[in-house]
Design goal:
3 helices, 82% helix
Length: 78
Amino acid sequence: MVDQGKIRLFKAKSHFLRNPGAVFVVFFQVLLLAVAFLLIEGNPAVDGVAVTAYCSLIVGVVLQAARSIMDKTSGERV
């Protein structure tokens, strides 16, 4: 019998391959948590991390939009 962990890993991998912006959105979420902890600590690096998180979100959204447009023009069902 196939291990459930391997099935989940395969599904996650195929999701990220179909949705290239998803990696950047997940990275944004991780950085957003880091920003929250840095704010609590009063760390001066919070501005740089916040800007990086925002840029990651923008890249992710643009990639997802481009993928959506490509899927619609090629006639694929999402």
